[in-house]
Specification:
The complex is a heterodimer. Chain A is an alpha/beta fold. Chain A has 2 domains: 1-86 and 162-246, Rossmann fold, CATH 3.40.50.300; 95-161, no CATH class. Chain A has 9 helices and 10 strands. Chain B has 24 helices and no strands. Chain B has helices at residues 3-14, 17-23, 27-60, 67-90, 97-101, 107-141, 147-157, 160-177, 183-210, 217-231, 233-243, 247-270, 272-280, 298-311, 314-337, 339-346, 361-369, 374-381, 386-391, 396-426, 430-457, 466-470, 474-500, 503-531. The chains are: A alpha/beta, B mainly alpha. The interface between A and B is large, with 40 and 38 residues.
């Protein structure tokens, strides 16, 4: 579990967020939650429950009209650039530029965040070594496996030391070693004061990794809080299934 | 580095064939890239030769001063049309939208970066037209030395204004369709309406000019270009700048291009995210009730899949169905206005018996319908979904048969309708009409099978944006360009032969030739499908 001895600061606040797709059907309905520095916040729910819709709105890629989302005190709607500068987002199926080499893509992202040459070199080396893809950085992304693309996307997300890391199903496609490495990185980031907000279907992972969790069903948050408060001594799987049947 | 430049640089690098060649280890792919470069080089040479020859014609008839306006108008028209077809897919609703928008880029920067990417990618075509015309103009007009750099610099700005107008129309289309549930269909309908309006505009303008009753062809050409320059001011500014050395006109072209760029992207940027959110998000009704399902053969199932693939993409629909829509419209127009009036409008009421054009009816229709065969791009459109086909027990021949069947479903009804309309309007005898229908059918079969040969031989699955394979792929270029030129040549030939030969005999001969070509192409498809 992350070390939460530091003074906590709200990194992400979702307030009454709703999103409709045609004919008034709400993909997200009045969602509210708060993620603080040092939190590893798990967002769990069925397929189509509204996880990705919420996550994409937080990442600033999905337009919304109802509710407010604040990242590090900045409104996603009003100050999107300020929010994106301190955020990194990894979608469930990252669409990277297939005709760039891994290193070309990472340099592109580092350029966007204006990272010094030495710093980016050090970071890319560090994370590429951790994920074991250093030798492949000179190959075209198109030749990468799904897992390698996922690793490249994760490295690109870590280059600028984000205050908030948003991940949509990050463990899908990763090999066991890479999954372990990612979990270690997530814990380490939280120790440094960053926050992580991620969706997952793997309840065991969420239970071991997260200190907070929210369960979403049909666009509505049906339970949220610290892992202890939510599970009340049961497993997360039991809690989830029970909440889902209510 | 400025974020816009960084984005543009990355977008260009991500689709750069040079970059792929440098880092790709697949020898076959590298050979294809070299072949692509040679093919593109040949097309550039053909285009430039055509432009130089046109200028020589202008020079020999003493109207060389019309060349700058012609150059500006040609580039502007091409830039406008090509951008209109590409806006959706490049500017909106592109694959890496989530990745780019999650980075600290202003929406305006992303939209402008995508526009600049379209501009830079198409610039070599426009510049090759412009430089070729400059060579022709220089040889006959003997302008001062300064005209050359001035021409080249201003050529960079000629496509900007029409591209911006087109992109803005694309933006409006996307903005309107974003408000509907069936965004793709609405977007396609509006885009097609714009394209048809632009085609008809050309005839309206020509008609206006014709009413001037200008007698001399030479005077008329000068008049035409002058009037066109008055109507489309940027062409006039370019012409003034290079012919009269009017620096203010040149500066005006540059200034207006820059200001318009800033204004358009301020407006587009303001609702860019909203439009893309609507275009990329699909409403899920969740109200489906399981009903009786229909069993299809493998070939029909593939054809149905192709149908859904097309209706799911407005870029595919607009490009793939445009020929059929134009053919149907031509048929309706012919029926309403009359064959003779339509021919009269095209031939400027030239004094000849229009009945001699009757044998060309199937080729006129085919000019539109054969413009694009979906089979030329559909193998490539499988893209990263190709694994689905590969992992299923579908034989390649069935896959291609399905793709060909879909194109026939699309082409044959439009061909039959347009041919019947034209035959009725032109008073073609029944037996001749039947023969024209059969000829039209065999032309459709040839176009379908030949398109499939091109599509398989130049299949490209690793595209970033579907427009790359729908509009710009070697498969489409190799299918479309010779096809269009050959059809134009055949139209002239069939009219020429029709004067001397019996129309039925001529139609029967062409049915035989096109059927043989269709069968040969089909056999080639089957052979290619066995190769894997």
């Amino acid at each position: 579990m992350p070390d939460l001895t530091d003074r906590k600061k709200t990194v992400l606040e979702i307030r009454d967020y709703s999103k409709s797709y045609g004919e008034g059907k709400k993909a997200a309905d009045n969602v509210s939650l708060t993620v603080e520095s040092g939190d590893i916040y798990g967002f769990i729910g069925h397929n189509g429950a509204g996880k990705s819709t919420t996550i994409r709105a937080v990442a600033g890629v999905l337009d919304f009209t109802e509710g407010e989302i604040y990242i590090d005190g900045h409104s996603v709607k009003e100050e999107p650039m300020e929010c994106k500068k301190v955020t990194a987002y990894i979608p469930d199926n990252p669409d990277l530029y297939e005709n760039l080499t891994g290193i070309q893509y990472l340099n592109f992202v580092a350029d966007v965040f204006d990272i010094d040459a030495e710093v980016r070199h050090e970071k890319i080396m560090k994370y590429a070594d951790m994920f074991g893809i250093t030798d492949s950085l000179g190959d075209m992304i198109g030749s990468y496996s799904h897992g390698m693309k996922q690793k490249a996307a994760i490295i690109s997300a870590l280059i600028h030391d984000p205050k908030l890391l948003i991940l949509d199903e990050p463990f899908v496609g990763l090999d066991p070693k890479a999954s372990f490495t990612l979990k270690e990185i997530m814990r380490d980031m939280c120790r440094q004061g960053s926050a992580i907000f991620f969706s997952t279907h793997v309840l065991d992972v969420a239970e071991k990794l997260c200190n907070k969790v929210a369960i979403i069903r049909q666009g509505r948050i049906i339970a949220s809080g610290t892992m202890e408060d939510i599970t009340e001594g049961h497993s997360l799987e039991e809690t989830f299934l029970e909440a889902d049947h209510e | 580095m400025n974020n816009s430049i960084l984005l543009l640089k990355t977008l260009l690098l991500s689709t750069s064939q040079r970059n792929i060649f440098r880092y790709c280890k697949d020898k076959k792919k590298r050979r294809k890239i070299i072949g692509g470069f040679i093919g593109a080089g040949l097309l550039y040479l053909m285009l430039m030769a055509f432009c130089v020859l046109m200028c020589i014609g202008y020079g020999m008839t003493g109207i060389i001063e019309a060349v700058p306006v012609m150059c500006a108008l040609t580039i502007s028209a091409l830039a406008f049309m090509f951008t209109l077809f590409k806006t959706n897919g490049y500017l909106f609703n592109f694959r890496e939208y989530d990745m780019l928008m999650s980075l600290p880029f202003e929406p305006r920067t992303v939209a402008a970066g995508k526009f600049m990417y379209m501009y830079v990618k198409s610039l070599p075509w426009y510049l090759s037209i412009s430089l070729a015309m400059l060579i022709g103009y220089g040889a006959y007009a003997h302008p001062g030395v300064l005209v050359y750099p001035e021409w080249v610099i201003l050529s960079l700005f000629i496509p900007v204004i029409p591209m911006l107008i087109s992109a803005f129309l694309g933006f409006l289309t996307a903005r309107i369709s974003a408000g509907f549930r069936k965004t793709n269909i609405i977007q396609t309908v509006i885009t097609m309406a714009f394209v048809i309006f632009c085609f008809s505009l050309r005839f309206i303008i020509e008609d206006l000019f014709r009413n001037d009753k200008v007698q001399s062809t030479l005077e008329k050409s000068m008049e035409l270009s002058g009037s066109a320059a008055d109507m489309y001011l940027p062409a006039g500014w370019f012409s003034d700048a290079v012919i009269r050395q009017n620096a203010a006109a040149g500066l005006l072209l540059i200034g207006v291009s820059c200001v318009l760029f800033a204004v358009v992207f301020a407006v587009v940027g303001s609702s860019y995210m909203k439009i893309n959110s609507a275009l990329r998000s699909h409403a899920a009704s969740g109200k489906y009730r399981m009903s009786a399902q229909k069993k299809r053969s493998v070939v029909s199932a593939v054809a149905f899949k192709e149908y859904k693939r097309m209706t799911g993409s407005s870029a595919y629909m607009v490009n793939g169905m445009m020929g059929e829509i134009l053919a149907v419209l031509l048929g309706i127009l012919t029926l309403l206005i009359g064959f003779e009036r339509i021919v009269g409008a095209v031939t400027q009421n030239a004094p000849f018996d229009y009945a001699i054009l009757q044998p060309a009816i199937p080729f006129i229709i085919y000019f539109f319908i054969g413009m694009v065969a979906t089979t030329a791009c559909s193998p490539s459109l499988e893209g990263r979904n190709y694994w689905i086909i590969q992992s299923l027990p579908i034989e390649k021949k069935d896959l291609y048969k399905g793709k060909m069947l879909f194109n026939m479903y699309l082409a044959v009804p439009a061909m039959a309708f347009a041919t019947l309309c034209m035959c009725i309007s032109a008073g073609v005898p029944l037996l001749d009409s039947i023969l024209y229908l059969i000829l039209g059918f065999s032309l459709c079969a040839f176009s379908t099978a030949w398109g499939c040969v091109c599509g398989i031989k130049h299949m490209r699955l690793d595209w970033e944006n579907e427009i790359e394979v729908i509009k710009q792929s070697p498969a489409v270029a190799i299918y479309m360009l010779p096809n269009m030129f050959v059809v134009m040549g055949l139209t002239v030939l069939v009219v020429f032969l029709g004067i001397r030969t019996d129309h039925r005999l001529l139609a029967a001969a062409f049915i035989l030739i096109t059927t043989v070509l269709a069968v040969l192409s089909y056999v080639r498809v089957m052979k290619l499908s066995r190769r894997g």
